Amino acid sequence: MLGYTLKRIMLAIITIFLVLLITFFTMHAVPGGPFTKEKAPSPAVQAVLESRFNLDKPLWEQFLLYIGNFFQGDAGVSLKNGREVGDIISEGVGTSLTLGLLGALVAIVIGVTLGIVAAVNRNRWPDRLVIFLTTLFVSVPSFVLATVLLYIFATKLNWFPIWTAAKPNYFLPVISLSMYPMAYITRMTKSSMLDVLGEDYIRTAQAKGVSAPVIFFKHALRNGILPIITYLGPMLAYTITGSMVVETVFTINGMGRAFVQSIMNRDYPLIMACTIILAFAMVFMNLICDLIYKVVDPRIRFE
């Protein structure tokens, strides 16, 4: 177990480094730059700006300088407003973390519940209703759903207030963020439960007279939930750091919105900082889910 964990941590470090390497050289390969505007500065001013932020150095040297500074706690300053990147991230990460965790919780609870309902009522009207809803939410992009919810329930009906920094309201953003993963978890839960309910040991338990609730919750659900755990890693990383579109639609001052703006502004230090957080969240969540496997099913052996 310890050896497996250490191996995964080393692979995670290598993965994050490769993501940073690819991101760094790709964003510099795109034509233009952070100081390219409709009214561009004079060549002398641009040369001073590039020297100030080390953009006049070779790319490999810029990369090594950034990595060295980052591991010393210096994520650099924004090329657009001169603020510390660490301050920008710290202002938005709390909001994004809350929004993402709430979205993940809603997706898991509703998704697993609907998946169980669909599996138990296979080919009956509850199953057909669940299939219709999951197909709908999988097909509708999050930015479309967010826009529709904002227009109907916040603008027209005034049931929920529009998001403000003074009075944040998480209901509509959480619903917008959670519907796609909820639909995916519902389908996965239904498929997994149907496979498990058809196994020989379930039929043996039924033949021995074991009660239906014990069969379902103690045997079927415990084994049927394993594929959902596999999906939880990337889903949690997506909901926590991937709420860029939802934050933009609801004008939420979170890390996702800062990431979108950094890409549009070609703000290299902010792009790199957001990428590091996203990559770390993805590999960390996957590692945690792999370890949860062992708790749910002690028969699993790590190598």
Describe the protein.
The protein is 75% helix and 0% strand. It has 303 residues and is mainly alpha-helical. The N and C termini lie close together (8 Å). The mean pLDDT is 79.
**Shape category:** globular
Residue share in helix: over 70%
Could you name the ranges where pLDDT drops below 50 across 5 or more consecutive residues?
Answer: none
DSSP strand content: under 5%
Class from secondary-structure proportions: mainly alpha
What oligomeric state do these chains adopt?
A: single chain
Over the alpha carbons, how many angstroms does the gyration radius reach? 24 Å
Summarize the structure.
This protein is mainly alpha-helical and 303 residues long. Helix content is 75%, strand content 0%.
Structural key phrases:
globular
Furnish the topology, listing elements before pairings.
Layout: H1 2-29, H2 43-52, H3 59-70, H4 85-120, H5 125-139, H6 142-156, H7 171-197, H8 200-207, H9 212-224, H10 226-241, H11 244-249, H12 255-265, H13 268-296
Helix pairs in contact: 1-13, 4-5, 4-7, 4-10, 4-13, 5-7, 6-7, 7-9, 7-10, 10-13, 12-13
